[in-house]
Amino acid sequence: MLKLTEISGVGKITFEKLKNHSIYSIEDLLYAFPKKYKINKLDSLDKAKLNQETSLTVKVNGKPKIYFIRKNLTKLTFKALSGKKIFNVTIFNRHFLSKSLFINQNVVITGKFKNNFDNFTASDLVLKKNYQEGIIPIYNLGYIPEGRVKKIINNTLNLSYRLEETTPKYLLEKHKLPEINTIITSIHKPKSKTDLAKALYRLKYDELLNFSLRIELINEYNNNTRTELKKYNISLVREFINSLPFELTQDQKQATNEIFKDLKSTKQMNRLLQGDVGSGKTIVALLAALAIVSADYQVAIMAPTLVLAKQHFLVFKNYLHDFGINIALLTSEVNPKKRVEIINEIENQNVNIIIGTHALIQTDLNYQKLGLVIIDEQHRFGVEQRKILREKGLNPDILLMSATPIPRSLAISIFESSDISQIKEKPAGRQTVKTEIVNLENLNYIYSAINKELEKNHQIYFICPLINESDNNNYYSVNETYNLLLQHFDEKILSYLHGKMTDEEKTKVLDDFYSNKTKILISTTVIEVGIDVEKASMMVIMNANAFGLAQLHQLRGRIGRNNLQSYCYLAVDEENEQKERINILKNHYDGFEISEMDLKLRGPGEVFGKNQAGIPNFNYANIIEDKQLLSITKADAKALIRNNDYQAKKFTEKIIKTLDSYNLD
Ligand code: ADP
Ligand code: MG
Fold first, then answer.
1. Which of 73, 263, 286, 626 has the fewest Cβ atoms nearer than 10 Å?
2. What is the mean pLDDT of the chain?
3. With helix as H, strand as E and coil as C, how does 576-620 read?
4. Which burial class, exposed, middle or buried, applies to 102 when counting CB atoms under 10 A from its CB (0-12, 13-18, 19+)?
5. Taking the CB of residue 525, how many other CB atoms lie within 10 A of it?
6. Which domains does the chain have, with CATH numbers?
7. How many Å lie between the centroid of ligand 2 and the Cα of residue 376?
């Protein structure tokens, strides 16, 4: 077999660079698909429409001007001529192009006419002589120039090296899918859009088949674990519900019923409780905890952050203080001596409910009789951490909670749980958070809105994408925003928070904010999950385009948690291309809808983080848009598992290897 270095164009240096992209062999190289394609097609000016992307050949008709707007934001403008028409072209952050833009030079501009045909905003600009029409693969292999990558790939394709087919042949035939070597050529050198579309369809199919197989295997192995029968005191739970200052919503009641049905059976509960921020999941979890304690078992509640763990602790204590239930908080803040005490109490079953962070899964912590594990914002924990906690009891029942509602198939893959309860309706009396998009250039508008809230003794969050300024982008940092706000507001009412602070510092900042001592909290997304501050009625999200929709919605969920009219300002640069995406939040308040849209736009890897087990790495398929193909692959996956032929088995084994959180022997 030929080695990579034997391919013409791959010298020593290129070989090293390829290794940085995990390309070690010819096979790897053939599978190094373009990151994207550019369809280069020139349009004519008379066919151009407002707000529609188009590529035009124009002549530079005036000396370019450069504006330095602020750090890392520049604007270049010049007059362009097409036929007889002259118009302005604007392009951001390409001031360096001005050197090569001579009068009368032919260039191709790609972008949009925004409000009229006199002003064109370009996203790309190349000299006409460097422009090539057709479907152009873009590899983006870091420091290896595109031209070199294309040459190497071309040389490799010419070798007629045959790759082994990985998907069972009869499935390919059934769906008339091209075999692997055919698509490799189409992917690297697409002849036409249809050619490329066929190849992409096959790649989507493969991804979704893998995904479906994983789900089927989880389902198959999920239903077999038993737990001890727990005899809980239902009248105690009823009494508690009646003592609540509010009535449970219909969805809360239903979720509670579903959970209790699980608790009653000897099949191990593995349920996911999904509900939008503020929908009232905590109280449902608390009911389950109360039941389990009444059956004389212990409950462990694990939260991803110290703040959230503390908050749960306070809520649980507050609700359960009359019930003679001992609740302990175990976090990194607890000093070693106290920690030993708590651990002893847990071992002696003097503590009924243990609330904490990762501290709950440390090796020297042994639960006496762990009957229920509740994991909040559970996608923030790795599979391994979840597994350790599970194994600390004798197959305890498991309740997972998530505020990012997701489609069922995805939930099964990520949470390994096919039982899902959803809380869709919000408790009565909640007002929608008035959401507005504002220009970062116009912060004065926000300052006056803040002053109005301050007069009412309300509080304000500022969320920034960064802790400190960065050279890579022009986003506002916590640091910069704090200094900015210092010029407008009294230092005494300002505070800031981010993940690099010590737990002690964070606690102090949050305590001051909780108690309404400070009024404006400037923070990174560390406040994203769970924080509940009564008087907080406004949130300003700086460079909102830096965040995903689901995340923005989650952040917004920190306000509007009671009957105060609340306001959310999504601040973006005037010219930001993401404005349209962000605008979705202005008209949508349903977390389910928003997360679907986010998944459609960005895919699960971006929404939930790529490095977690169970989060499918779809490069081609889209879990929302390709629903139909997904149902096809689901049926195929079922058949594959039933089918015992050699090829099917080999394929299934490959998937099983990735299901490391299960003992599948
Ligand atoms: P989340 O789903 O985000 O965890 P919480 O459980 O923290 O939501 O609930 C948000 C707020 O709503 C809490 O202050 C809680 O006491 C309150 N709440 C929960 N259920 C109801 C209800 N049925 N009616 C009124 N308020 C409720
Ligand atoms: Mg919560």
1. 73
2. 88
3. CCCHHHHHHHHHCCCHHHHHHHHHHHHHHHHHHCCCCCCCCCCCC
4. exposed
5. 18
6. 1-38+137-161 (1.10.150), 42-130 (2.40.50.140), 434-588 (3.40.50.300)
7. 7
Helix (H) or strand (E) holding 180, with range, is: helix 180-188
Cα(400)–Cα(272) distance, rounded to whole angstroms?
A: 5
The answer to whether 468 touches 477, Cβ cutoff 8 Å, is yes
277 lines ligand 1 (CB under 6 A): yes
Give mean pLDDT, residues 183-187.
Answer: 94
DSSP-assigned beta bridge partners for residue 538: 460, 567
Cα-to-centroid distance, 122 and ligand 2 (Å): 44
- Tokens 């905003």 locate to 121
- Global pTM reads 0.74
| Residue 612: closest CA among 539, 661, 647, 571 | 661
Distance CA 76, CA 454 (A): 41
User: Tell me, what amino acid is at 563?
Assistant: N
Q: Are 123 and 577 in contact (CB under 8 A)?
A: yes
How far is it, in rounded angstroms, from Cα 111 to Cα 116?
13
| Angstrom distance (rounded) from CA 578 to CA 586 | 13
Distance of CA 190 to the CA centre of its chain: 32
CB count within 10 Å of CB 545 equals 18
Burial label, 186 (beta-carbon count in 10 A; 0-12, 13-18, 19+): buried
How confident is the model over 610-627, as pLDDT tens digits?
666 677 878 889 988 999
> Which ligand neighbours the alpha carbon of 283 most closely?
1
pLDDT score, position 614: 73
Does residue 282 line the site of ligand 1, with CB under 6 A?
Answer: yes
